[in-house]
Design brief:
Structural class of chain B: alpha/beta
Radius of gyration of chain B: 21 Å
Distance between the termini of chain A: 34 Å
Number of helices of chain B: 7
CATH class of the largest domain in chain B: Alpha Beta
Radius of gyration of chain A: 19 Å
Distance between the termini of chain B: 63 Å
Number of domains of chain A: 2
CATH topology of the largest domain in chain A: Rossmann fold
Oligomer: heterodimer
Strand order of the largest sheet of chain A: 6-7-8-3-9-10
Largest sheet of chain B: 7 strands, mixed
CATH superfamily of the largest domain in chain A: P-loop containing nucleotide triphosphate hydrolases
Helix content of chain B: 25-40%
Order of helices and strands of chain B: HEHEHEEEHHEEHEEEEEH
Strand content of chain A: 25-35%
CATH topology of the largest domain in chain B: Rossmann fold
CATH architecture of the largest domain in chain A: 3-Layer(aba) Sandwich
Shape of chain A: globular
CATH superfamily of the largest domain in chain B: Bacterial phosphonate metabolism protein PhnH
CATH class of the largest domain in chain A: Alpha Beta
Shape of chain B: globular
């Protein structure tokens, strides 16, 4: 299988940081450095991702799971570590790119679906316009082609094409999320980040969105990183999983293995409490 | 020090003029880039053409001929007052209303109909210099967007226009890409005037006094209004319902940008050239033509 992403010893500290930050924080302690009060959101996170694979990152609020994804999508700057993106025989060191290169990478190779549609969508323009924005950033400049592509994507994600020119403000939460997914998929990115995509949606809508994500993965062979605190989502989607606590990876491996036979006490509690 | 007014030549002090000229040089070197400068207080409210005026005062010298127009007219309040101010503070300059006689033209919202020459400079007054203001409120982010030539969100605006109204509804200040990189706000000139910037022989300067920016379209630059591949840019159409090109009620010309107004006597729509100098010239030409005809008839 082709490798798509390799992350090595990634760290992110909020605050000025000190020499003791990493010694005095950790899964067994806390994520706030007692010496300098900096927040160690993530430390020494390493993983790899292959084409068509779904990797789950699981953990409670504040465990640093979203931070990892935000840094990979350039929303935040990492403190340390390396991330290499493999693209058609080219290697890109993600954390060394300049702004323009980052933007190019975002528009051409990555897709992001946020928990809050407000972050991923512009609520002042129509659903179709949101998808057009991404296609225009990608370099498409033909109005009718953009229209038909947007229409195709929206029907693919089961948003009624009649609602294409409506403003996402008038949509239900589930529909907004579908529009976000359609937007993320617009440029056929090889890598998709999903940050708590089903949180806050009702159960039937959750199931439909998860179905959609699985279909997309099977159809397009898109690699995905799924961040969630929901064990059900992990069980359904992810082939491999990282469990994070206080910014550290405490357990990683095949999802089935982690859920059936959790090694770390925290994971054991997590799995037990979910049932 | 000018004796007549008690002000130095050109009202501004030498340092201020030098700064404006340096900003102009930079603006020419980076076509379409908005060069910040320290816009001075002028004896008129910001938003009344102080940016254009500062450019004019910094560039004009004895022996030059100035034309000031406001929406094509030499006689409207803004044009008259600006011209009077320059006449007062710059002795030994000439003013004119004839486009071809002017070496420097300060204009509000129009580029003259008559093609400008390499010897001329046109200064446009700009209320809003940044075309990205409509899509991005943060100036910091706008600067980055300009730096990276990231203009896709302007096209999203066009997309939304076409979705809602079946056409691009921007009537003036049409975003235009200069030499394939920066997109500028060409000031509130009508779409009709945008193609005049393309490969213009004259230097076009833009001054925004309130927003403290100067930018330029150097002579013989590419000026490309943004559009989609399949929805091209088009200028205002002046055709009636029968498909005939409307003509000016005064001079009969059919090529110019027309103003529409209602005749108070009969309530009918009347069209007239917006560029008065152009209209007068067409009238002159028509009269000459008529005279020649008369002479020919007499001789035969």
């Amino acid at each position: 299988m082709k490798k798509i992403l390799e992350v090595e010893s990634f760290s992110k500290v909020y605050g000025r940081g000190c020499l003791h930050c990493f010694d005095q924080t950790g899964a067994e302690q806390t994520n706030i450095c007692p010496s300098c009060k900096s927040v160690v959101a993530a430390h020494d996170v390493s993983f790899s991702l292959h084409q068509g694979e779904i990797l789950g990152i699981m953990g409670e609020s504040g465990s640093g799971k979203s931070t990892v994804v935000k840094c990979l999508y350039f929303d935040e700057e990492p403190t340390a570590g390396r991330a290499t993106f493999f693209d058609n025989g080219h290697q890109h060191s993600l954390f060394d790119l300049n702004n323009a290169q980052q933007r190019h990478m975002k528009n051409h190779s990555f897709g992001m679906v946020y928990q809050n549609p407000h972050l991923g969508l512009n609520f002042d323009i129509s659903a179709g316009g949101n998808i057009a924005e991404r296609l225009l950033m990608y370099g498409d400049n033909h109005y009718e082609k953009i229209r038909s592509k947007a229409r195709g994507l929206l029907s693919r994600t089961e948003v009624l094409p009649e609602r294409m020119d409506a403003i996402p403000k008038t949509f239900s939460g589930g529909m907004q999320q579908r529009v976000q997914i359609a937007k993320a998929l617009a440029t056929d990115p090889p890598l998709l980040f999903l940050d708590e995509v089903t949180t806050g949606l009702d159960l039937s809508v959750q199931a439909a969105i998860l179905d959609l994500i699985l279909e997309i993965q099977q159809e397009l062979n898109t690699a995905m990183i799924v961040v969630t605190h929901d064990l059900g989502v992990i069980r359904l989607l992810a082939g491999r999983t990282l469990v994070m606590k206080y910014g550290r990876v405490i357990e990683s491996g095949l999802t089935d293995q982690i859920l059936e036979d959790p090694q770390h006490a925290y994971t054991q509690r997590l799995v037990a409490s979910a049932l | 020090m000018s004796k007549a007014s008690g002000y130095p030549f050109g009202f501004l002090d030498e340092y201020a003029k030098k700064e404006v000229r340096r900003s102009v040089l930079k603006a020419i070197a980076l076509p379409g880039y908005q060069v910040p400068y320290s816009s001075r207080e002028m004896p008129m409210g910001r938003g009344f053409g102080t940016g254009g005026l500062q450019l004019t005062l910094s560039l004009i010298g004895p022996g030059e001929t100035l034309k000031v127009i406001d929406q094509g007219s030499d006689d409207s309040v803004n044009a008259v007052n600006l011209r009077a101010f320059v006449e007062m503070t710059c002795p030994d300059i000439d003013t004119t209303t004839r486009t071809e006689e002017a070496t420097l033209i300060q204009s509000r919202h129009r580029i003259p109909e008559k093609e400008l020459s390499e010897k001329q400079v046109i200064v446009l007054q700009v209320p809003y210099p940044d075309p990205l203001t409509v899509v991005e409120p943060s100036e910091d982010k706008r600067k980055t967007m300009h730096g990276e030539a990231d203009y896709s969100r302007l096209l999203v605006k066009l997309y939304e226009d076409i979705v809602k109204f079946d056409e691009i509804t921007i009537s003036h200040r049409y975003p235009t890409r200069i030499n394939g990189y920066y997109i500028l706000d060409p000031s509130p000139i009508p779409r009709f005037d945008v193609p005049k910037m393309h490969q213009s022989k004259a230097l076009i300067l833009f001054g925004a006094g309130r927003e403290k920016k100067i930018y330029a379209v150097p002579p013989y630059s590419e000026a490309e209004p943004i559009a989609f591949e399949d929805v091209p840019f088009r200028v205002e159409n002046f055709y009636d319902q029968q498909g005939n090109r409307l003509s000016c009620a005064r001079c009969g010309n059919q090529e110019s940008f027309l103003d529409e107004f209602i005749d108070s006597r009969n309530g009918k729509k009347v069209y007239q050239c917006s560029d008065i100098d152009w209209c007068n010239e067409q009238l002159r030409l028509r009269k000459e033509e008529n005279m020649k005809e008369l002479v020919r008839e007499k001789n035969s």
